[in-house]
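Changelog entry: the Putative MFS family arabinose efflux permease record was regenerated in this release. Current contents:
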Amino acid sequence: MAPARGWPVALMCHAVVVQALTYVVRPTTAYRALELDVPASQLGLLSGAFAVVPLLIAISVGRMTDLRGERLVLWTGADLMLVATVGLAWLADSLMTLLLWSVLLGVGHLLTIVGEQTTVTVLRGALGLDSAFGRYTLSVSFGQIIGPGLITLLGGDGAIPDTSAILRGAVVLAVVLVFSTAAMRARASGPARDDSPGSLRLAMRVTGPVRRELINAIAASLVLIAAIDLLVVYLPALGAQAGISAGTVGVLLSVRAAASMVSRMFVGSLVARFRRLPTLGASLALSALAVAVIPVPMPLAVLFAVMALGGLTLGIGQPLTMAWVTEAAPPGARATWLSVRLTGNRLGQTVVPTVAGFAASSAGVGGVLWVMAAALAGVALVVRRGRPA
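Regenerated structure tokens:
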């Protein structure tokens, strides 16, 4: 199938809308739960409802995408996100209904992400995988910034915002997502592909160097995602210990996110000059350095520079691991292996913070970040040496 001219614009808009919708609805769901007098100790159930079912079905969704094409997955995901948002806006009056709509939202989000990433691999055109995934992840980051801003715009300035107004606005955004999916219709693959292995077992059957490359790429992706999550969670605690205000911590995190967006603009140029694996290895090593230095007492201006460095280098890793998995996966099994990567990321986001919590109880916040820096350095060595993770 020839790549459609202008496809990045349609795909990038779709990615922005998906992430903006997700990042406005999920926090608002927590606020709605508080309005319903759900104890704060039970808010974690909402996060689990969003994440657990997608974790269980992600690989099967990838296999279906390989066999049936991106169009079905994209449309089903958009429809589920619309239904979930409508339910949260008008049919959520208990914790059980909030959990139900959160499950649907999580499944819809997974389907759209798998569909988008597979569309990148099919329609990358002359951009190349690295540049195409760089543009895609740039759009993802932009949507993740827009979503929380909508809470401020629509919800007012109370401690608990007007969730009804926010969720009605989110329904409008979900309708935009459906129309955005329609705009991508001609650019998503329709029928099953002839080169797709028939069963999940066959799609996962890779040996030797291919298996080694896939494991390395997935390990690098998992560690990168975990490092970003831990920075978001533990930087406020580190700031409190150092007497840094919450507002300044928020600006530091925004600097990290903005720097990641900047680096993703230039992923293709970096890979063209230095090649993919050296670029990824160097970015992981510099990320390890930045994360290791963050707990060290330093002037605030220097800390801003360190966060900018961390953002630049952490931002490079995700598009490169997507491209690496795509290139290493067998023909007809790319969506399956991209879904394995997503599953690894979700596991990392679930397991690593738990382990970090135990580490923090004995070694403090600094110890958590130093352990994460060591993990980044270890994966950097694995990538550079080409050995199994």
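The two ends are 35 Å apart (CA to CA).
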